[in-house]
Amino acid sequence: MYSDLAGKVAVITGAATGIGKAIALRFGQEKMKVVVDYRSKQEHASEVVQAIKEAGGEAIAVQADVSKEEDMKRLIEAAHTSFGSLDVMVNNAGIQKEIPSHEMRLDDWNKVISVNLSGTFLGASQAIKYMLENDVKGCVINMSSVHEIIPWPHFVHYASSKGGIRMMTQTLALEYAPKGIRVNAIGPGAINTPINAEKFSDPGVKASVEKMIPMGYIAEPDEIASVAAWLASQEAKYVTGITLYADGGMTLYPSFQAGQG
């Protein structure tokens, strides 16, 4: 736990389920004030809000589409109106869909890019604008993926979006470091989220994924939430411009683990 987080205000996109939900719940345990963004799952978002309050934090749920600039402005305004500030922005919302690259339509490409990459930019830029205007030395956390550096056939739109987040994170970190605003990313590996539930329910598929992870297991969302809490805290006050890979070693070329090659 990080005592400096108590009372801080955070906005988390895509916080009704999965990694976003886990981060919201962890921030609640840290006694933070949380704006829980959701796109369509209002009931799930309300449950997250209630859990945060029960943990000792404060929370509200706000519906917003991260790919729309006006919606992102409204999220930031909700944080200010309800809690009086914005200290931490977590751009977590993201989507993926398997499509062979030669069959991918422009609409398929644009849908993923608009949420994953443009949505992250809108969230980061609106948060930074607020922090500059209100002299807040806050932090932005972007949810990337191991696929910002690991190619992923059939997911070229997703991998491209995450590669873009990597450079966006580095650029924003360099640009706003003199203002005391930190910008970092988290690169999860295989995580047991609802979006992966069907895939990991197949024992054969699950085993094949675990073979790509040197630590040998698929992580739970709260293991990523722990990383987010650290990056948001003053324990990470000298950290900016990085992607912190929380992947069990997936980015370490696991095929070489036994010394072959």
UniProtKB/TrEMBL annotation:
<comment type="similarity">
    <text>Belongs to the short-chain dehydrogenases/reductases (SDR) family.</text>
</comment>
<keyword id="KW-0560">Oxidoreductase</keyword>
<protein>
    <submittedName>
        <fullName>Glucose-1-dehydrogenase</fullName>
        <ecNumber>1.1.1.47</ecNumber>
    </submittedName>
</protein>
<comment type="subunit">
    <text>Homotetramer.</text>
</comment>
<dbReference type="GO" id="GO:0047936">
    <property type="term" value="F:glucose 1-dehydrogenase [NAD(P)+] activity"/>
</dbReference>
<dbReference type="InterPro" id="IPR002347">
    <property type="entry name" value="SDR_fam"/>
</dbReference>
<dbReference type="InterPro" id="IPR020904">
    <property type="entry name" value="Sc_DH/Rdtase_CS"/>
</dbReference>
<dbReference type="Pfam" id="PF13561">
    <property type="entry name" value="adh_short_C2"/>
</dbReference>
<dbReference type="InterPro" id="IPR036291">
    <property type="entry name" value="NAD(P)-bd_dom_sf"/>
</dbReference>
